[in-house]
Amino acid sequence: MIQFDYLFRKIVFALLTLAVIIVFNFFLFRILPGDPIKLLFRNPRMTKQAQETIRVQFGLDKPVWINTERLQSGDIGGIFDSQFGAYISNLFQGNLGISFAQRSSVNEILAERIWRTALLLFAGEVVAIVGGIIVGVVAAWRHGTWVDASALIIGLTTWALPTFFLGIILLVIARGVLPTSGMVEPGAAKEGTIEYWLDVGRHLILPATTLAVGSASAYMLIMRSSVVEVLAEDYILTAKAKGLSNIQILKNHALKNAMLPMVTIIALNLGYVVGGAIQVETVFSWPGIGRLIFDSVAKQDYPVLQGAFLLLAVSVILANLVTDVLYSILDPRIKAS
Amino acid sequence: MTVAQEFFRKPQAILGSAMLALVLIIAVFAPLLAPYDPYERLRVQPDDLFAPPDAEHFLGRDDAGKDVWSQLIYGARVSLLVGFAASLVSMGIGTAVGLISGYYGGTVGNLLMRLVDFLMVVPDLPLMLVVIAVWGRGLLNIILVIGLLGWTYTARIVRSQTLSIKERQFILRSKSIGASNARIILRHVLPQVMPLIVAQTVLDISASILAESSLSFLGLGDPNLISWGSMLNFALDRGAVSRQAWWFLLPPGFAILWVTLALILVGNSLEQIVNPRIKSHHLFDARRMVSLIIPLPPAPQSLKESQDNS
């Protein structure tokens, strides 16, 4: 049985975090230097009619936070008749606004791109987790030897390396061998066919590797020190005295305990990985959320920027919640007594 | 043995300090060391664009015909300035939050730690990107954003140290002779936590420098300043890859790597001295240990909480 009290607190915290992010997101884009209405209307291609639609939709003719006028006249429901109220209600209807730069809604733009970023993140993280754990365990087991020292030096160097620079190095090295830009060769294969997905796979190699190396070094270093620490425990000495082989000790005694910090680190690292994805997508023109953020910054496309940030933050918060649940299943100490 | 003596007995500490000292000297004496002024407007010939290294331009020239070596030297100033200034901000906030929540505890302490949890969950880079995109790309904004988001580890370390220090005898004795809380915190707790704060801050500087270079690379650096990240932004944007202009692509990246690696080496050495942990384990011969050990991250909050409860 999972300890429900623990889970309950985690869920409440995740919900609170979400609420803070949502309020912050509103606040951030309303304290823009200059009039937010003018900013929304900075798009020169917008017609008078479209301007009016937006004005009504975002409640821009209303007060920012609370409609005190309606409140004073005794109308409690008027509290939410404000820009903030309109923002929240739009958000819950899944309406993130309309892009300045493209003629489509932010929802459509994000929906088209989110799975591409998810694919990149998934591929990169799987490689990073598996690779990081294996190298980390081997380095810890051979603690103090040249194996450990070289794993450590390589790990530290790749850890200190900015993700985008690692991408640039791989880009220079693999140019001509592997595709370095985009997700598919335009017009090469029809969407949905096997050739198409093979092409996506080929385009995925460089960005996913870049993303994986950065995370793998962090996982490796943590796994290494975690296993080293566990191996210094007295119960390992006991196991050794019982005559168990090193492999048995590692597998049955050390790994199980060393895995727990890994779960926490993988969760904490998620925010960092998402940041890495923005850099990787920029270097390799991978058409996901990260590249979208980069392009939107250059075009000052605030609605898209706002939506993309919200989407990333919500995903990371939810993923953290999932890891917390996972943690409570993995760690017997969290189970109810 | 003093901390300084112990520090300079570690090979990685000496290496890191030397690497860092070199960059500091270059940054301080940039106008004397740089052969050209990278902020000067140039009249260029078509041949000057992406010109490979030659006798006059040791690292060749960029897409606008400017000397890459001089830009690299001036770039050190921006990286170090942002790194140190932002870390100073996060050191101040982290120390204050850690001391207050550790010493007083209670509702305020709990709320502060929830704020820490919140900041640890929210993805840093996207948050910095939107804030800078909205606030504007000035140097001060960049320093503030990085500093305001980077204090969580310091706060956690200071808090856990404060929690253990405040239980010691001498704190009780100071209290009994009438010392105020402020005096105890500033005169007794802070000096004890200070070494750990310094070690963590050195590591924070490297993280701040990485954050600044990522922002600049993504086109959100200060538009009036040359930094290593913005050099790489220009290099990638203006087609240095297809021109195979390695002299423009590689040096800024290796400069970032050089500084962050130096700071990590120094920070880790300091942390090992002031916060000694694992010395050996039972599967291997302790005599063959290399001195390099990565410090463990702070224990997961969730685990600690649940242990307290059960």
Tags for this model:
heterodimer, A: 337 residues, mainly alpha, MetI-like fold, 13 helices, 73% helix, flat, B: 310 residues, 0% strand
Explain the overall architecture.
The complex is a heterodimer of chains A (337) and B (310). The longest helix of chain A is centred in the last third of the chain and has 39 residues, at 246-284. The mean pLDDT of chain A is 81. Chain A has a domain at 106-336: MetI-like fold. Chain A is mainly α. Chain A is 73% helix and 0% strand. Chain A is flat, with a radius of gyration of 25 Å. With 310 residues, chain B is an all-alpha fold. Chain B has a single domain (3-34, 60-281), classed as Orthogonal Bundle (MetI-like fold). In chain B, 67% of the residues lie in helices and 0% in strands. Chain B has helices at residues 3-7, 11-28, 30-33, 68-103, 106-121, 124-135, 139-149, 152-165, 169-176, 181-217, 228-237, 246-274, 301-309. Chain B starts with a helix and ends with a helix. Chains A and B meet through helix 1, helix 7, helix 8, helix 9 and helix 10 of A and helix 5, helix 6, helix 10, helix 11 and helix 12 of B.
N-to-C SSE string of chain A, H for helix and E for strand: HHHHHHHHHHHHH
Summarize model confidence as the mean pLDDT of chain B. Answer: 81
If you consult CATH, what is the topology of chain B?
MetI-like fold
Q: Give the end-to-end Cα distance of chain A, rounded to a whole number of Å.
A: 9 Å
Q: SS-based structural class of chain B? A: mainly alpha
Query: Of all protein chain pairs, which has the greatest interface, and how many residues does each chain bring to it?
Result: A-B, 89 and 70 residues
The CATH class name of the domain at 106-336 in chain A reads Mainly Alpha
* CATH-defined fold name of the domain at 106-336 in chain A: MetI-like fold
Q: What overall form of chain A do the CA principal axes indicate?
A: flat
Radius of gyration of chain A over alpha carbons? Answer: 25 Å
The helical percent of chain B reads 55-70%
The low-confidence runs of chain A, each spanning 5 or more residues with pLDDT under 50, are none
What Rg of chain B do the Cα atoms give? 23 Å
Mean of pLDDT of chain A: 81
* Regions with little confidence, pLDDT below 50 for 5+ residues of chain B: 276-310
Strand content of chain B: under 5%
The CATH superfamily of the domain at 106-336 in chain A is known as MetI-like
* Reported CATH architecture of the domain at 106-336 in chain A: Orthogonal Bundle
